[in-house]
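Forwarding these from the shared drive since the link keeps breaking.
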Amino acid sequence: MESRASDPPSPTSPSPSRSSSPPRIRRLEASVVNRIAAGEVIQRPSAAVKELVENSLDAASTSVSVSVKDGGLKLLLVSDDGHGIRHEDLPILCERHTTSKLSKYEDLQTIKSMGFRGEALASMTYVGHVTVTTITEGQLHGYRVSYRDGVMEHEPKPCAAVKGTQIMVENLFYNMAARRKTLQNSNDDYPKIVDLISRFAVHYMNVNFSCRKYGSNRADVHTVGGSSRLDAIRTVYGASVARDLMEISVSDDNPTRLIFKMEGFISNSNYLAKKTTMILFINDRLVDCTALKRAVELVYSATLPKASKPFIYMSINLPSDHVDVNIHPTKREVSLLNQDSLIDTIQSAIEAKLMSSNSTRIFQTQVVSSSLPTTQISTRKDKEHSIANSGVQSQKIPVNQMVRTDSRDPFGRLHSYWKDGSQSSKQEKKSDLASMRSVVVARRNWKENTDFTSLDQLVREIDSNVHPGLLDIVKDCTYIGLADEVFAVLQYNTYLYLVNVVNVSKELMYQQVLRRFSKFNAIQLSEPAPLQDLLLMALRDEELETRGDETETNDDLKEKIALMNIELLKEKEDMLEDYFGIKMEDGSLIRLPVVLDQYIPDMDRIPEFLLSLANDVDWDDERECFQTVSAVLANFYAMHPPILPNPSGDGIRYYRKNREEVGLEAEILVDKSDEEQVDEELVAEAETAWSQREWNIQHVLFPSMRLFLKPPKCMATDGTFVQVASLEKLYRVFERC
């Protein structure tokens, strides 16, 4: 017995734990429960994008834009122009089970929105860092707030915003090591996101969709709303797919059997593909149905070649009470009433459609040109192959000429060193700027509706006056950070440059005004702004700047000048609205143009803008008129320093509550206790304005500059671009040390 006791237990023998007392059942902490649930709802970055896009569509958006970095693990950015989120709803926005879609369980029977549980945003805050920027109609400004673990990290901060909502999810699965390791290959999930947006773009053909890698100038998905379904498929999947599609529809309205309607497109016998593409929407909800997919593939197996698979787009509409949408954590699947009968009916309709269209097949042929021998083709391919494989290895770059940053990767910026856990991502391939410019020009081709020789001359002047060296810098520079209130630091190859932000933004806005001529989107003011009040304000400010505070003011003269300017602007209001998107009505300013997407100018400069518009424009000559109006708009939209002084550093002295008009010398003598008594509300407003400007410079100005700016030759000599250092010279300095 003793010898048997010393042997290890056999596999069939009971383990010691079974003879001990059973483990205690514990109630899990709320944070653990939420993280487990979040991992089920947000299984991968594409699932997060799906939830955010569905929220945008539920918000009646007409434009949805998606930007992705590192397959969504580092950054997901989804922007829309929907109705936005109320300020009073922001505190509970990311709590679990908070939703605007339903209030009681019975509402699920008639639900039409895609979201209903109120779990998606909450789940994202438990596995990532979420920042929401939103504005609702009628608000003077938007709000930005960050969330973590379902709650706000700070009170919502006022900020400039474009209509709708922008949700940014950073560092997804940062606290789920196992999940993050399985998703490390960013090349794996980004195609899933592109495929997801492509499917939405086909179904929601009245919505503008775009999807791109963060920092890239070329969109991998880009559609313009208002096109037909077939045009949407052609835009997303290509003409080769669209030409081999047939329209199909089937319905049944017998209450005793089925009530449904199906419309869509299916591929004919000429279509060749190695993988089935099935886009299925049920009651406008993107879902999967394995049984329906197998039934369709079974029909095609007798028609298509053995190795080829079909393309199917289907939109099925059923009564809401015939669909159970609450059967899957990610709402990817639904349960249908009489599903088998529905599938049989659709299968029969597809089979009949294929049989009626299968009388002929088209085979694509390729003509071999005799002017180019086969040996020449193979030689060229071999040469290209050898260059691709050996070109990088054959030349070793000296260390003092090695560029370690990528203009598309924000890791080289100063902000990346202010955050913990930042890691460099793999360098993305350079985007084809030429193709992106062609897309933009095609969308905003002002020549379609206008025929002004003078405008054409102004645009040609821009194109012919480009400095080629500065153009290369602008296209491939890396933003580093702000040096002071006017200059920003950028890197190009092994050089550092100081760039005058005001001059660059002014030139960019000028060029954009001319290129968007008569094709502007609108910034609607929340309330009409009286022109007389604004012009009087500008005249008083101008008098203070030129003559000082002690000048006696002549209000009657100012009112006469203001009325004269108003009469002039009234005469030109039709032209200003049609060509430049500036709408005035009944002596008030109603609307301003969108000169640069995602950017709103400093509204404190509207009085100065109107005064300049009335006095600095040459209204007599067409060419001069277009040029001067564009210049006035450019100066207004340029990224000037805010009017309020920068409260950081010595600027805080302007915000002291007990500040007397005794000059700087007396201020220095103020004791420390008085020095700390500042106007906190005004300081907060100033800090918001300065931080918003810095954000606009980094995230709006520099990306747009790479896309659109054609720097004129004068910028090389007027101090707009100043080289301050080069890596080669720095190496020589350090070698002497």
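-- next protein --
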Amino acid sequence: QHKRQVNVPFCDELPSRQAQLAALRNTEEFDVLVIGGGATGSGCALDAVTRNLKTALVERSDFSSGTSSRSTKLIHGGVRYLQKAIMKLDYEQYMMVKEALHERANLLEIAPHLSAPLPIMLPVYSWWQLPYYWAGIKMYDLVAGAQCLKSSYVLSKNKALELFPMLKRDKLVGAIVYYDGQHNDARMNLAIALTAARYGAVAANYTEVVHLLKRTDPETGKERVCGARCRDVISGQEFEVRAKCVINATGPFTDSLRKMDNEKSPKICQPSAGVHIVMPGYYSPDNMGLLDPATSDGRVIFFLPWEKMTIAGTTDSPTEITAQPIPTEEDINFILTEVRNYLSPDVEVRRGDVLAAWSGIRPLVTDPSSKDTQSICRNHIVNISESGLVTIAGGKWTTYRAMAQETLDATIKAHHLQAGPCRTVGLMLEGGKGWTPTLYIRLVQDYGLEVEVAQHLAATYGGRAFEVAKMAQVTGQRWPIVGKRLVSEFPYIESEVHYAVKEYACTAIDVLARRTRLGFLNVQAADEALPRIVHIMGKQLGWSEQKKQEELNAARTFLYQEMGYKTRSEQLTNTTEISLPLSEVDRYKKRFHKFDKGNKGFITTVDVQQVLESISVQIDENTLHEILNEVDLNKNGQVELNEFLQLMSAVRKGRVSDSRLAILMKTVEETLEERGLVSVDRSGGGV
């Protein structure tokens, strides 16, 4: 039994979601049922199935829809934990860092397409800190031992500024650069779940646990958990899944499942919110992050390049448990203020540059068996209840595999399961096999994809990128030959939406936020791509017009609430104050009147169209409607002078950036001035 090699039954084609649901219904009894499809739950399912256990995994939303997709995107050992370990001579902390560094190396090896080492700079602003930080970072390298990614090094002030020109020059004495890993978290989570499915685990998203099933053990007379009653969220059908043991890997919702098992279970989860914001790529160098170890209130702030953008975060504040955490304006402004502190005054950090914002709930845990309830574990805990429910809680992204191994070891022992040894160290994840750093070149050469698109496909799907490329449609242009983009400034293409359905995407949000990462990178671009995504998915999944509309609305709500569109749109509202010096008010009024020929006090698309024609510029009508609608605050189909002044005031304060109307009117004014024409005469008396 133990010597059997693990075979991969679904090497070529993944079973459909319908097939997975049928298997959940029709299997007499699983060995293990895992509840929760985040990094930890998916890791447990993969660990179990590769030990030849009959495994099921259910997730009530989408894989990685919770905390796992809202992380800082780092695969790290925890520099700051090491600092605590040394300061307090805390052996447990030290071992935790050592384990995380081992896991970091493993994760970079098993999913090389989704992860890579990233140099991170620690700017130093006083001489005495230099040796202190240097010693700490060298210890980090030492603890990693042979698994050190690359050696850390010290930089002079000039060299630091050369690598990171946006840094504040004053008082800077130098910098230290160390290496950690970075990954695409939601795709990594999905890769773990899909790998488990390929090995034969029955995994279904949008499958909710209604209640746990119990039976009375004839020998002891005690109640034992023996499965769960589940509901397919999409069809509403309910069914029972029986299993020898159940693993609770529900992150922030750990306690609600523990209470389902036993009303009297003590609470162990202490949720903490981490807010991150996304800014344009020009805020950070292409391949170097920044760590500010001493913010104004002691929290650590990271500033990292990710997917050609810049991520800044994180805050750390107690929060309520919710499935839809919302980033607050207060958190966003805290991060912006910290960012301003260490960027050069030449760089104006504008509120309008926040392209997306999100909040992830870290499920910190207190150990139920410890006397002192205050001792929040930085580590994870595995707990087995009287009825045999196994709970894995806490921990961090980087150590998901070690946590899964520990959980399964405990489960097998407690439930006397027949299982092989753990096989997940070095086990390649979905797409890792067949990936090479030059894979994208073959995609360009074989299919005629744009280089940027090919690089993105290789970094997202690894060896399976060819399957996505094969589905790509011919563009009809000279170049690229195939691959139609969903939105012009991002390398996501339409065939990825088709492929996403094979990867168990069921809603437009799954595609926007997790199969592609558009929702996390730029909410406005995501909103623009949405109708096309819904159209493609609707065709493939046979959605009715009503269902399509529901999907559009749900995705817009998601972008609005959870991805920071709401706080972005609140920067320009009816009540925005106009605070401009008089001279500027006059200048903007003149600009406005170049469009408002009849002194009506407002402009419409027709006015803008006329002026554009006079300088031979063509913009199609739908686009013009969109451009004006962004500024039309009372939504009456026209932009009043007051609304224009509110817009210009918000632009001046940096609350709004990239306003198409503001830039369009400015360039038109400049063009007209260059020509020195009195445009009214030419356009027939300003009718």
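The longest strand covers residues 238-248. DSSP finds 25 helices and 21 strands in the chain.

- D.
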